[in-house]
Amino acid sequence: MIKFTKKEADFIRKRSEARVATVSSKGWPQVTTVVHAFNGRHIYFAMDYGSRKRKNLLHSNKISIIIDVYERQPKAVMMQGRAELLEKGKDFAYTRHLLEMRHAYFQANKIKETKAVLVKITPIRKVSWGIDDSHR
User: Fold this and answer.
1) What is the pTM of this model?
2) Domains present along the chain, CATH in parentheses
3) Residue 136 CA to chain centroid, in angstroms?
4) Is 103 exposed, middle or buried (0-12, 13-18, 19+ CB in 10 A)?
5) What pLDDT score does 47 carry?
């Protein structure tokens, strides 16, 4: 399991948006913006059952995610890892709670089992820039 520095973890928690990249069964990459939650080890987000992301992740659970900001000084944490699709049970409830605590949208629009898919990303590699004054 990779470890995040305090500055990386703080940066990930402060940014609400992330971009995730998946690959289709025909080898085409797809990038979309998501809102996420972070528990210090894993990144979580929600998606619809009919989404291209879900179809791609059913084909391959490999995923990339970047949380970034490009203002005066570019800052980012980019990770590659494995995605686990959560549809019900304890892990689903835990992830739903994290997303609801982080985003008003999910507080107002409750995520229901079998109505949406939640995704848990386990990072395997990471690189960051502009955060710790070093590349990791």
Assistant:
1) 0.92
2) 6-126 (2.30.110.10)
3) 19
4) middle
5) 95
